[in-house]
Amino acid sequence: MIGLNEKLTIQYYDGVSTYTDYSDELFSYLRDSATITLASSEAIYIGFRKPINQIYVQLDEASSTSTTLSVKYYNGSSFTAVTNLHEETNAFTRSGFISFDRNLTDEAKTTINSTELFWYEFTVGSDTTEMIIKGINILFSDDNMISEREPALVSSDFYPENESSFVNFHQAARNHIMQRLRNQGKGVYVTEENGENVLYFKEITAWDLLDPSQLGQASTMLAISMIYYERSDSPEDKYYQKYMDYRKEFNDSYSLYFLSIDLNNDGKQSDEEKQDYQTRVINRA
């Protein structure tokens, strides 16, 4: 069974011969960080056991360089540009999502620093200034999505002490949603083997969601409810009422989605893997 706390493998390459592994430092958005200045001749390689198409980069200190970010995947013979790159970090000058199309027709594993995975190459057109990267992982929501509903909330008046974002609440919302999915049997499926139906259970993780944006609305509502709950001193105050309102919106949003879950670990979305949220068992025969 693949562990629930599986992480991306993140390698910084100095453009000559040396790799530095930041996988542990960048796994959580709440613990460690990595200080990197990325030259145009260097690269950050991000690898995983199967194809991915989205990450979230949280920066404590952003680059001040105006440049471009290039993202490439390995196609079996060389690294080539991903298609439909949606790059919210503006080349690491701010935190944000980086997403792109899955290129599953030719996406292949390769070996970087003695590790064979599906690898993605991140490079910049010009040298960045020093960056402090707080985390590179997967989230379903961020502060920009909060500001669409509660613009005044995204400010230093509300941020946790010594923090400049609500990334801790987004991480908590992701974990809460994934645990609820597991509790509701979202890794349970039936497939036919030798003429008989066989029941399987997969301990799903966030990386098994083929389209994480499907949970963006629910995660945003949950994060906002958590923020207001922390601000509340009494069930009678205005913050507690807002907590209740947004918690209800979370439950409503959460119950509406069709989720595409990669049950067979191939990174592809088949018709059988498109689940009605209320369906606990699907037939993969």
In short:
The chain has 285 residues and is of the alpha+beta class. 20% of the residues lie in helices and 28% in strands.
Could you please describe the fold and organization of this structure?
The chain has helices spanning 143-149, 167-183, 216-231, 238-254, and strands spanning 9-13, 19-21, 34-36, 43-48, 54-61, 69-74, 79-81, 86-87, 96-99, 110-112, 115-124, 131-137, 188-193, 196-201, 258-260, 274-276, 282-283. The chain is flat, with a radius of gyration of 20 Å. Helices cover 20% and strands 28% of the residues. The two termini are 22 Å apart. The chain has 2 domains: 9-137, Jelly Rolls, CATH 2.60.120.260; 151-283, no CATH class. The chain has 285 residues and is α+β, with helices and mostly antiparallel strands. The longest helix is centred in the middle third of the chain and has 17 residues, at 167-183. Residues 276-285 have low confidence and may be disordered. Helix 3 (216-231) packs antiparallel against helix 4. It contains 4 helices and 17 strands. Strands 1, 2, 4, 6, 7, 10 and 11 form a 7-stranded antiparallel β-sheet that branches. A 5-stranded antiparallel β-sheet has the order 3-12-5-9-8, with no helix packed on it. A 3-stranded mixed β-sheet has the order 14-13-17, with no helix packed on it.
